[in-house]
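step 4 of 6: structure.
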Amino acid sequence: MNKLVYYIGQFLFVMLFQTLVLNDMTINDSISFLGIPSFIPLLFPVLILLLPIRVNYYVMMLYALLIGIVLDIFSNTPGMHASSLVLLAFLRPRLLRLFFQQDEKKLGWARPTMYRLGFMPFLFYICFSIVIHHLFYFLLQEWSLSNILYTLYKTIVSGILSVLMIVIGQFIFYSRPKFV
Amino acid sequence: MRNLILILQAYQKFFFFLLLEIICLVVFIRNNNYQFQSYLHSARGMSGSLYAKKSKYTSYMSLTEKNKALLAENAKLKAQLGIEIKSNPLQDSSFTLKRKVDSLKETVHYNYLPARVLDNSFDKKNNFMTLDIGSNKGVKRNMIVVGPNGIVGKITHVSNKYSLAASVLSNSFSVSSKTPEGTTSTVSWGGTRNPYSAVLSGIPQSEKLKNGDTIVTSAFSRFPPNTMIGRIIKKRKGGSNSGSNYLLKLSTNFKKLDFVYVVVDNINLERKVLEDSLITAEYE
């Protein structure tokens, strides 16, 4: 029960922060001389990435679909967020196995936070997931391979900011556990 | 049959993923256009009211700027109306010639419905803005939206209280335009991906446009004729034999857009009905 309230709170906080704050700060004005396109950080993949390691696969997939549909309604992109989040949720167990194979049994129901996993493994895990999610999302948005460089550029600049925000969020919202 | 069931069981998780992903992609591909038909849009009740609440609080942030913009617009409108300012009220005005205008006999081409922009985006391929008026104020699909400084977009979705407008910053949105010399051509945003500029294409090689020339909407467009689109910044490299391309600076600053007008066209109703039937036929 307590956990359910926690996840609903996390969902509401991240979604409101994304739709009301981040979607509005299109970062372009100050650095447009470099030819960087308008971009925004996408924080919401963190909702999927920070679920407990042994969470039920089907619950996770349906949760990803729900997040995607809500975001699609708010940003007028039917199906775009939903399909990229479903892909991310499908790949998450594989990414976790890739980076924390030996610890998987030991970690159990723990959330893959920075203090549990250590800084570098966590960073690799987040970077990989964010790049996959952003690349798929921006490829869908562009819907052509003719200006693939533009898509890659957007993935990189938006991804760097997203990763930065997630790592800062770890420092703010999670405290170092007393015993390790 | 038994083997099929065994395969389905063995790859249960993968097939579940495939099912969800295909549903999402079908929804996406069917609606990958700014005139999409899906119900997933932000002019709906819940998202609309959330954006309305946000706008209620964030609208205080730049009141000075907004007041200045409104003042400038008022001044411009007064200049267009030509209201005389009498320098001396005691002056004898019996000799000044006054043109009498019977306002009842004049036809009003366009009515303007004021609206507020609740939410606006610039970073996508098709960008939309949510407006705070809907069918309760008489907004209909395919109505044109203009701002105080120039063109803004077109209504694509209407709900009872809110409506959604595709802004000019959408990939396949094109506007029929007119150069100062009267050549008609097309303005579209597709190539630039910058919220401040658009591309003017199809200008014949014989015509040389200078930097700073104003481009306005032509009578062919559904926008009110002679609405400002933007000014020319520079000539673009390339361009086909049929014409050269120019880069425009849009006169509407989409990042600071707050008040817009939805245009109700009273004259071209017949033309509109015909065009709307064509558009809906195209996307159905």
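step 5 of 6: annotate
 - The domain at 45-77+107-171+257-282 of chain B is CATH 2.40.10.340 (Thrombin, subunit H).
 - The mean pLDDT of chain B is 83.
step 6 of 6: archive
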